[in-house]
Design brief:
This protein has 4 helices and 8 strands; from the N terminus they run E-H-E-E-H-H-E-E-H-E-E-E. The protein is an alpha/beta fold and about 180 residues long. The chain folds into 2 domains: about 90 residues, FAD/NAD(P)-binding domain, CATH 3.50.50.60; about 80 residues, no CATH class. GO terms for molecular function: electron transfer activity; flavin adenine dinucleotide binding; succinate dehydrogenase activity.
């Protein structure tokens, strides 16, 4: 039996994103929006259209401080629960709650639908149990969230190498400059 030697291909890119789940897609989109002239490549072990933990969608966007409904301060107050002490970084949670509404609006522009009442106000649901104020969970029709993100990736002409498994990182002096992988 003769074993065929695999082809070795070198691909050059300015930014390499390993993983095409929601975080990888958002990282590539943000990089492209910040520097549209750079060449960006995503390596994904499956297919970005339905990969990652959001492959089957999601039903809500959590940690959203919607103006008029809740504030980042209320969110931080709600995370100050006895069983969370020492785990939660208040400054990180404040920034997350503060910036999340802008992300909701961006997702909405891309076609994600969020639940609203008859007046057009977002419907927030309680996030914490007990006497803590604020509704930080906004229900959404997110079944096709990954399809929407993959469409946004394609609009930006980001190269996607689906079914490509990363096997190692290439580094020199503690600086990563690439990766090795194989396509199945």
């Amino acid at each position: 039996m003769t074993v065929k030697k695999p082809e070795i291909e070198t691909i050059k890119t300015d930014i390499l994103v390993i993983g095409g789940g929601s975080a990888g897609c958002m990282a590539a989109i943000a990089a492209s929006d910040a520097a549209p002239d750079l060449d960006i490549t995503i390596l994904e072990k499956a297919n970005i259209r339905r990969s990652g933990t959001l492959a089957t969608g999601m039903d809500a966007l959590n940690v959203v401080a919607v103006p008029g409904i809740s504030t980042p301060e209320e969110y931080v107050e709600g995370t100050d629960l006895d069983h969370l002490r020492g785990i939660i970084e208040e400054d990180l949670h404040y920034v997350l709650a503060e910036k999340s509404f802008a992300m909701l609006k961006k997702l909405e522009q891309w076609g994600v639908e969020f639940e609203k009442d008859d007046t057009g106000q977002y419907v927030g649901t309680p996030t914490f149990y007990g006497p803590y104020p604020g509704n930080f969970t906004i229900p959404m029709a997110g079944l096709d969230l990954k399809l929407i993100l993959s469409r946004e990736v394609a609009k930006r002409r980001i190269t996607v190498l689906n079914h490509t498994i990363t096997t190692s990182l290439l580094s020199d002096n503690n600086s990563v400059y690439g990766s090795c992988g194989f396509n199945i």
